[in-house]
């Protein structure tokens, strides 16, 4: 069934490669995924890792849509039907505080909750949480009932309203199924960071940080320990993997 | 009308009804096929309003299916003889409407061809997964109940099976209300009150459907509904309508008391889109005040008052479900309390929904299925209520 | 007309027996006829073209028999458990077996997946979601016949 685990020499090479790549900083605030050991072929994800995002709304520029465009490009989201039916996995929300008039902007995507309501309500179990914390839709089992869209507090999920033909090979998606931000799981599994995070870094705003929440030495964990952050709709007690500064 | 004259026309009337029903069903299937081919982009639904007009029809049919069985329950479980005679028709209507409602729900799925997946993969934290068993179990129990009612030597089991059916449909309708009640994030739904509210609404809507169907059958067969029976059923419907309104009032009053719900209630009840007029004119006036006036009126009434009162109740039912389901989704989620949000994904914006033709056809197709099953059942088997007291001897429908 | 109590009368019965006999004999005759003309109405066997010179990940007989289970099992390992880089992968099949002209595994009865699936009249569900082509922005091609 699964291939035999790779021998020590391959592991060492992969580990060294990952460490070297981690040392290469593309831009302040972005770093490729830091792993002590890369996952070998046929090795399942483990709960030792919990992927998360830290989004700094103070650094997020109003009007910039680098993350949204990168996500659309990476995942093949190129719909032309009317806007309210078009899928969006991440969107930029422009905010204005009612009481003070202060403006802010932040991207909102699937929050990858630890206790996801969408997983609770899915009748077939298609909406599920992977061991490493990423909440996904298994489109083989999704029947398109949209109950998860009703249940999500963040409007994170979209429904595919039209037949699709131009899917990216690494991102299968189709008519009649529900979909949402996958935290670029196809990139994470190959030791890369999500497309939105990379695009934000390349755009010089550097408002998005990706990393392992369970690793106390990761940059995201250190920043969360140092600065007060908020979870959206914290009152619901869902423990999202996405945290925000400045909202 | 004269029995002989109607007996000649009866065959024509029946086949005309069947053709009308088949046309409705064909329209529904055509709409479902179009949505399968082109996707939901041809519907008026969106990523904000994901359950539209078909769900209004489907949930009405499912809730009324549970409620219409109440007529039989009053007969079998509470032992009222007038209702006992009506129990088989109530059971047939329950099966018919459940079939129609489920057909609409399943055909509106994004991937209706994956029914096998839904029948083999279960996540038991989901009410929908429980519903697969509750609804199919409902079919089985009502079928068994009909058998106990209609075969003379099984009549002594009618009460225990009727009790089981009563319990089952309470669980089922609680589940239907909880579909919405369990949604923590939605301002329209996050309430434990919804489960009992749906049960009470089901009683009213089911009895209204029953009265209309019963009146039609009686009129077309030249039968006369005994006045005491009519009075009792009509008053009962009025009581159910009042009880339903009580729950709706408590629900909205509580919401208005919570500061964080005020914006949503203002939208739904006062200034949002089409929903306030549907709620006040459609549900409160046409669906509540007018039928209660008709149903509780002390003036002598003919059989038409039962039909009129019931018809208004059903108008109110559709209005209430439209406001509840669609209005509840049209109001944006509050992700950033205290902020005004805008985005390309309609954050902070009220989604405008316009029902499309495929959705309407699909909903009517569900009604058509329920209608056809009822018409065929009444024609073939002995579902017409057999009243054998008072000055109106029982008249059996002439066989062709 | 027909009732349990009145068995087939001899005259009516012999007509029925003759019709039944015809119903068995005629198809058998058609099947047994050795002429080449009857090939025209038989469904042509699939003629897929496999141009890759490398070995497949498993023998053809095993693939033919077991590929539904391979695909289904594999997808659960990949989707649910996140296992990557294993022997079987849908993209791996497509990369090797895509038609040289169209770049796709569907779109004609010579295409790798569609050829046999069209012959066996088994609808392929995969390519509603999975990209069947190795070429980016390839024109959309119709999947095989829906049974």
Write the layout of secondary structure elements.
The complex is a heterotrimer of chains A (247), B (400) and C (147).
Chain A: H1 8-23, E1 51-56, H2 66-75, E2 90-97, E3 103-109, H3 117-121, E4 127-129, E5 135-137, H4 147-151, E6 158-159, E7 178-179, H5 185-188, H6 195-202, E8 208-212, H7 219-226, E9 242-245
Parallel strand pairs in A: 1-9
Antiparallel strand pairs in A: 1-8, 2-3, 4-5, 6-7
Chain B: H1 3-38, H2 53-76, H3 81-107, H4 115-120, H5 127-150, H6 158-181, H7 194-220, H8 227-257, H9 262-271, H10 275-296, H11 303-330, E1 339-343, H12 357-380
Chain C: H1 10-32, H2 60-81, H3 90-97, H4 112-120
Describe this structure in words.
The complex is a heterotrimer of chains A (247), B (400) and C (147). With 247 residues, chain A is an alpha+beta fold. Chain A has helices at 8-23, 66-75, 117-121, 147-151, 185-188, 195-202, 219-226, and strands at 51-56, 90-97, 103-109, 127-129, 135-137, 158-159, 178-179, 208-212, 242-245. Chain A has one domain (49-245): Alpha-Beta Plaits (2-Layer Sandwich), CATH 3.30.70.20. Chain A has seven helices and nine strands. In chain A, the strands form four sheets. A three-stranded mixed beta sheet of chain A has the order 8-1-9. In chain A, a hairpin with a 5-residue loop joins strand 2 and strand 3 (103-109). Mean pLDDT of chain A is 89; it is low at 23-32. With 400 residues, chain B is mainly α. Helix content of chain B is 71%, strand content 1%. Chain B has twelve helices and one strand; from the N terminus they run αααααααααααβα. Mean pLDDT of chain C is 79; it is low at 1-6. Chain C has helices at 10-32, 60-81, 90-97, 112-120. With 147 residues, chain C is mostly helical. Chain C has one domain (45-147). The chains are: A alpha+beta (247), B mainly alpha (400), C mainly alpha (147). Chains in contact: A-B, A-C. Chains A and B meet through strand 2, helix 3, helix 4 and strand 6 of A and helix 4, helix 5 and strand 1 of B.
- So how many helices of chain B? 12
Element string of chain C (H = helix, E = strand) = HHHH
Number of strands of chain B: 1
Distance between the termini of chain B: 19 Å
Low-pLDDT residue spans of chain B: 389-400
How many separate domains make up the residues of chain B? 1
* Number of domain units of chain C: 1
- Rg of chain B is 22 Å
Share in β-strands of chain B: under 5%
Number of strands of chain C: 0
Structural class of chain B: mainly alpha
Mean pLDDT of chain B: 91
By CATH, the topology of chain B is Formate dehydrogenase/DMSO reductase fold
- Hey, which two chains have the biggest interface? A-B, 58 and 51 residues
Please bin the fraction of helical residues of chain C: 40-55%
Low-pLDDT regions of chain C: 1-6
Largest sheet report of chain C? none
Q: Strand content of the residues of chain C, in percent?
A: under 5%
């Amino acid at each position: 069934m699964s291939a035999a685990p790779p021998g020590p020499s391959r592991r060492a090479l992969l580990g060294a490669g990952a460490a070297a790549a981690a040392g290469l900083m593309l831009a302040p605030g972005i770093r490729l995924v830091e792993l002590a050991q890369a996952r070998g072929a046929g090795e399942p994800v483990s709960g030792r890792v919990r992927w998360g995002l830290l989004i700094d709304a103070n650094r997020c520029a109003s009007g910039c849509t680098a993350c949204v465009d990168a996500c659309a490009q990476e995942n093949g989201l190129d719909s032309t039907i009317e806007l309210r039916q078009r899928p969006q996995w991440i969107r930029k929300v422009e905010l204005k505080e009612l009481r003070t008039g202060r403006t802010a902007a932040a991207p909102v995507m699937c929050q990858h909750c630890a206790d996801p309501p969408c997983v609770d309500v899915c009748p077939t179990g298609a909406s599920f949480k992977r061991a490493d914390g990423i909440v996904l839709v298994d489109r083989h089992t999704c029947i398109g009932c949209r109950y998860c869209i009703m249940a999500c507090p963040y409007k994170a999920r979209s429904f595919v309203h039209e037949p699709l033909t131009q899917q990216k090979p690494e991102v299968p998606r189709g008519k009649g199924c529900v979909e949402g931000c996958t935290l670029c799981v196809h990139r994470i599994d190959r030791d890369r960071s999500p497309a939105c995070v990379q695009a934000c870094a390349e755009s010089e705003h550097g408002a998005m940080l990706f990393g392992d929440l369970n690793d106390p030495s990761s940059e995201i964990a250190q920043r969360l320990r140092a600065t007060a952050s908020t979870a959206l709709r914290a009152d619901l007690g869902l423990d999202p993997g996405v945290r925000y500064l400045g909202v | 009308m004269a029995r002989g004259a109607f007996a000649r026309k009866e065959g024509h009337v029946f086949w005309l009804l069947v053709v009308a029903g088949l046309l409705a069903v064909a329209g529904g299937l055509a709409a479902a096929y179009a949505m399968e081919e082109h996707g939901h982009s041809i519907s008026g639904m969106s990523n904000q309003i994901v359950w539209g007009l078909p769900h209004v029809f489907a949930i009405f049919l499912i809730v009324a299916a549970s409620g219409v069985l109440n007529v039989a329950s009053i007969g079998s479980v509470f032992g009222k003889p007038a209702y006992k005679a009506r129990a088989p028709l109530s059971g047939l209507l329950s099966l018919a409407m459940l079939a129609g409602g489920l057909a609409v729900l399943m055909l509106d799925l994004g991937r209706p061809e994956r029914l096998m997946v839904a029948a083999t993969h279960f996540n038991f934290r989901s009410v929908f997964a429980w519903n697969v068993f509750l609804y199919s179990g409902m079919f089985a129990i009502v079928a068994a109940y009909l058998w106990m009612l209609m075969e003379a030597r099984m009549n002594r089991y009618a009460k225990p099976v009727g009790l089981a059916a009563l319990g089952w449909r309470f669980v089922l309708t609680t589940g239907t209300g909880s579909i919405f009640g369990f949604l923590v994030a939605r301002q329209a739904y996050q309430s434990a009150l919804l489960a009992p509210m749906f049960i009470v609404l089901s009683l009213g809507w089911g009895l209204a459907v029953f009265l209309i169907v019963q009146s039609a059958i009686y009129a077309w067969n030249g039968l006369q509904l005994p006045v005491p029976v009519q009075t009792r059923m009509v008053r009962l419907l009025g009581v159910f309508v009042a009880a339903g309104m009580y729950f709706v009032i408590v629900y909205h009053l509580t919401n208005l008391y919570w500061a964080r719900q005020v914006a949503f209630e203002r939208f739904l009840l006062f200034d949002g889109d089409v929903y306030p007029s549907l709620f006040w004119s459609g549900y409160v006036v046409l669906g509540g005040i007018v039928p209660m006036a008709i149903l509780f009126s002390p003036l002598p009434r003919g059989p038409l008052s039962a039909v009129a009162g019931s018809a208004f109740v059903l108008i109110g039912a559709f209005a209430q479900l439209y406001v509840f389901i669609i209005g509840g989704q049209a109001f944006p989620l509050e992700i950033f309390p205290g902020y005004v949000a805008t985005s390309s994904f309609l954050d902070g914006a009220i989604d405008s929904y316009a029902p499309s033709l495929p959705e309407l056809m699909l909903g009517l197709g569900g009604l058509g299925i329920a209608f056809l099953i009822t018409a065929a059942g009444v024609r073939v088997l002995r579902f017409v209520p057999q009243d054998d007291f008072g000055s109106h001897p029982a008249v059996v429908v002439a066989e062709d | 007309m027909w009732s349990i109590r009145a068995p087939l009368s001899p005259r009516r019965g012999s007509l029925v027996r003759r019709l039944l006999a015809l119903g068995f004999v005629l198809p058998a005759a058609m099947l047994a006829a050795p002429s080449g003309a009857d090939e025209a109405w038989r469904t042509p066997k699939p003629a897929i073209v496999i141009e890759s010179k490398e070995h497949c990940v498993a023998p053809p007989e095993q693939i033919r028999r077991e590929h539904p289970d391979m695909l289904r099992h594999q997808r659960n390992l990949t989707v649910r458990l996140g296992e990557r880089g294993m022997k079987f992968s849908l993209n791996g099949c497509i990369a090797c077996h895509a038609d040289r002209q169209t770049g796709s595994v569907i779109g004609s009865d010579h295409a790798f997946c569609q050829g046999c699936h069209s012959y066996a009249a088994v609808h392929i569900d995969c390519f509603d979601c999975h990209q069947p082509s190795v070429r980016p922005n390839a024109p959309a091609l119709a999947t095989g016949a829906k049974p």
